[in-house]
Hints:
Elements lengths: L2 E4 L22 H8 L2 E4 L10 H9 L3 E8 L6 H8 L3 E2 L4 E8 L1 E6 L5 E6 L3 E5 L5 E5 L4 E8 L8 E2 L6 H12 L6
Antiparallel strand pairs: 1-7, 2-8, 3-10, 4-11, 5-8, 5-10, 6-7, 6-9
Amino acid sequence: MVKVWYMDNDTTSDQRLEHHRNPPEYLSLDELVQKTGVEYYSLNVESYTTDGVLEQIKKERGYTYEDEITCSENCLANYEEKLKSFYTEHLHTDEEIRLVIEGSGYFDVRDGADQWIRIAVFPGDLIIIPSGIYHRFTLDSNNYIRAKRFFVGEPVWLPYNRPADDMSCRKEYVDKLQKGFVSVN
């Protein structure tokens, strides 16, 4: 089950550690949606291919393409460099949708006050990161995740590193953020 908290400001320790504030500041899923627009769904990894829940989400959101990615030291060439590139703050022009099948990791997103929120994901967690939000990804100390990725149409998978404030997707995201997000679950 997903866990969400505000991160500390420690930039010298291993990015794969939890990085809690002292004392820890956890957020509920409703607070996550309200502060960032990130959506969360809990799926059963044993039955997601047959229970219809994922198919309904894909249909509602128009996801027509999917693939799978495995991140670990054994299967990623230039592992340390890949981890660094995933952890570089960036945005995309499309939503980023991930369903964790095995393993675990962290998605970090910025809130409206530009503070980092860490989202720890585990098998069965599906998150939807909005277009235009600054974010990053890293493995946790287990160093392994296998996840499904979903796209509307053929994937256009370009990260735009910060600063990218002049991009239309960023301006649209900031506008939605200022108007307020509403939980859909």
